[in-house]
Design a protein that fits this description.
42% strand; four-stranded antiparallel beta sheet
Length: 405
Amino acid sequence: MDLPSDAIVVRELESSPSVKLKSQTLREQNGSASSPANSTRSLFVGKAHPSPPPIHTNYSVPNLSSLSPGYMSQVSRSMERLTLQPGRKDSGNLAHLTGHITSVPQILLKNKKSLDEESKVLSVDWCFDSKHLVTSLQSGHLCIWDTMAKERVQIIQTPCTWVFAVSYSPSQNFVAAGGLDSKCDLYKLPRGKQTTIESLHVAQHQSYVLDCSFTTSDHQILTASSDSTCALWDVESAQMIREFKGHSSDVRSLDFQKSTGYCFLSGSADKQLGLWDMRTGNCVQSFLTHTDEVNQVRFFPNGEALASVSDDMTCRLFDLRMDVEIAIYKRNSVLFPACSLDFSLNGRLLFVGYSDHSFHVWDTLKSAHCGSMYSHENKVNCLKLSPDGSCLATGSWDQTVKLWS
């Protein structure tokens, strides 16, 4: 078969647990796993048994950047197409494939500090130094904390109340915030003896800004809104570069994929997750397995999987390479919505905050519960692990941020 010159050769994924899961599922659907008739290989099917010497295939996929918009719209899995197939049954049991791996022991995190705020904590983000933390509040304030000294070093008054989103820029010289006024503004942090805080209006949506994130530099920022869209903005000109449409309800969360630099995730109240290519504006992958509104999404640390939490009281893990849900994290004793989540640095642990004032720790490979922490007096609306992995910050509607080690 003649391959296009710009083709990307897909690497073999024989050793991936998710690949073994897909192989097993297909063999079960086809009947006998050892039949020569069933030994035809596809992109994600493992070795047939009894197996001949390994076959090194030359399967390839076209480079997304080289495809025309018409072709992309034809092959991309859009939100609308997935809505027509809500009964897709390709989920699997990751825990079944990792039975030989030692389980994570029970974890008890220590609450080492508590930061008292003046109103509900809606969002948090860490500075790259893992020392400073910014919080956004219902009152309309942004507070920058020195977590080592347990000291509030800066208070920024924004033009609106209910600041739903806050994000540090890659250079750590700015923070972006968006909220009830449907805008996203940038604030330059003072340095040295400077006390004046400069602000810059960057983005304007038709409804509330619910999340925001810088890309690879201080010059571009992504926003998610309750007008059902996400958008990419140029900071200096305050102009929209591209709009991302496809959701049918509030886009509550987004997460930028740093490993590629051109993809991001969205999670919406329409129960769907979307993976977007910023170069084309298309939704190239989407998932619809939650049964209620999606509250937050996060990329796995290596960028090849994602997790989401929902009002359906579950957290779910999806493998992007296989386009499949591979794990569900839930407990019968948890009867409240899952609000927030984050991964440990290596991805083995998953931290999930709930509306019952608690947050829980999950073993991602075993789908096993390995810890519960009850310290807040209201729902754990946001949580974030520090860049060095040494501290977990949990923000709550009880007007506190707690730091855990």
